[in-house]
Amino acid sequence: MPIRQLPEDLINRIAAGEVVERPASVVKELVENAIDAGARRIVVTTAGGGRSLIRVEDDGAGMGRDDLLLSVERHATSKLADDGLDDIRTLGFRGEALASIGAVARLSVASRPAEATTGLRIEVDRSRKSGVVPQAMNRGTIVEVRDLFAGVPARLKFLKTDRAEAAAVADVVKRLAMANPDVHFVLDGADRTPSNWPADGSLPGRVMQVLGADFTENAVPLQTSRHGVVVTGLAGLPTYTRANSLSQFYFVNGRSVRDKVLLGAVRAAYADFVFRDRFPAIALFLSIDPAAVDVNVHPAKAELRFRDAGGVRSAVIRAIVDALGEAGYRASSTVAEDVLGAFRPPEMAEAAAPAFAAATMLRMASLPRFAGEDRQGTGIAGLAEPSARYEAIELPPDEASYPLGTARAQMFENFIVAQNGDALVLVDQHAAHERLVYEKFRAQLQSGPVASQMQLIPVVIELSEEDCARLEEAAPTLERLGLYLERFGPRAVAVRETPALLGQADIDGLVRDLADGLAEWDSTETLGDRLDAIIARMACHGSVRAGRVLRVDEMNALLRDMERTPHSGQCIHGRPTYVELKKADLERMFGRTR
């Protein structure tokens, strides 16, 4: 078959397939154009999920007759000062958006610059352009897109339901609104609940508008400049996670992107804190020299390439790690809400709490008397006696100021019950001490090898030959962590020194656990990168075990250590180490009202 030149309409439809994937793609292109035009108010209206109607109105600079005619032509743009593509400072630059949209829909563009007395409108119906006609309007631009893909049934059948497409449009507008806090965004239409995000001017304020106060209350601010990269935004606490990555937002120079470098950096920064199969919530904003990033690697400009990917990764990880470190022992407020929800029967609404309590009392009154109950029916024998009654303990002024309170009891040999000024605090002693030991390990390792303690008699542990070989090869790395062992015959190792931080740890269990880890990783060459994982296993074996009875001074010492230690709000597996229940929460749980 001979080579032939494709017709113009087919070229336009092919280009549209690259740029216009779905209604959300159209909205993204049009809103980015409005932002580049200097708009301070943008209204997006849709119908049928954007399939029937997309209308974007802005108060930007507007266009005169010549610019309006060129705007619907391919490869025509006002966003490149010269012909270079290595210093992009606008959101759009390809000059294909309107021409591509006009190839697969009915397009109308009306615009009026500030100096004009009236506006002008041009229409494009599947690449067929009309003449320019006058239109009365305010300064700015109004773009309407109707019957998207009506003439391209192959593309139309791949669209999802109107509800799904409307949700995708909302997600695009949310991301653009987050990146531009000085622009007033309105999202409206017959297929959605209206959203109104007035210009806030501040990044935290706009993030709260879009993602809600729940996220901002459970997040820490990011502010780092490193390797020529300025990192700002909000990072969710490790205990504030989601089952998917939909609550992760990434922006580079105001552009919402999907980038493997950023995804990997966030995953690495949270690796020690987030429970498996959970995703942290984050709004990450990067500012970088436009010449150091290539945004021309994807037709829809959703992906990019960094010149110094390693520097960007390092800057992001450092920003998140530092911010989470400053959060200290703090855990998300959702932990307490989850606990209260577990105590509350599903069918019990808050308004029905008194009725629920009354019904429960009636049922209890009809039950047979217990053998130990007193004859007057006032309760279980001994419960009303002074020796069995709980006496409220006044907190000394200095103790009342402790964030995690003062220990009052230990339950089930694992949970510390503490009280601060206005709340009850429940602490998982094993999970909390596990985090404390882990952080002490890391701190010691930064200043040199971890201190070790000699075993009076070497501990000999029998293992398979394969496990012994792996441990022998890993011995130099393990010595940095205070664990000294050597081969003791073909099927055993002898442990001569152990990390001093572990105290009287279960050495046999520790070594077997490390052997399992080495077998899982299946490579001693990467042990330098696996130090955190090795430390985590050691910390687990060196922490206060569940089932150990603690004295009051030991419990309080643990609480004070938690308050001083970064990341102590969650264990090394990502689970919360404590739950704080406010007095008002407890009163509400029992149906008490003030």
Q: What would you note in describing this structure?
A:
The strands form 6 sheets. Strands 1, 2, 3, 4, 5, 6, 7, 8 and 9 form a 9-stranded mixed sheet that branches. This protein is elongated. The chain folds into 3 domains: 8-197, Heat Shock Protein 90; 203-326, Ribosomal Protein S5, domain 2 (2-Layer Sandwich); 406-594, MutL, C-terminal domain, regulatory subdomain (Ribosomal Protein S8, Chain: A, domain 1, 2-Layer Sandwich), CATH 3.30.1370. It has 594 residues and is α+β, with helices and mostly antiparallel strands. The chain starts with 7 loop residues before the first helix and ends in a 5-residue tail after the last helix.
Secondary-structure map with pairings?
Blueprint: H1 8-19, H2 23-36, E1 41-47, E2 53-58, H3 65-71, H4 97-103, E3 106-112, E4 119-125, E5 128-129, E6 133-135, E7 140-146, H5 153-156, H6 162-179, E8 184-189, E9 195-197, H7 203-211, H8 213-217, E10 219-226, E11 229-236, E12 241-242, E13 248-252, E14 255-256, H9 260-269, E15 279-280, E16 282-288, E17 293-294, E18 305-306, H10 309-326, H11 334-343, H12 353-365, H13 397-400, E19 406-411, E20 415-419, E21 423-428, H14 429-446, E22 452-462, H15 465-480, E23 484-487, E24 492-499, H16 507-521, H17 531-542, H18 552-564, E25 578-582, H19 583-589
Parallel strand pairs: 1-8, 13-16
Antiparallel strand pairs: 1-2, 2-7, 3-4, 3-7, 4-5, 4-6, 8-9, 10-11, 11-16, 12-15, 13-14, 17-18, 19-20, 20-21, 21-25, 22-24, 23-24
Helix pairs in contact: 1-4, 2-6, 6-7, 9-10, 14-17, 14-18, 15-16, 16-17
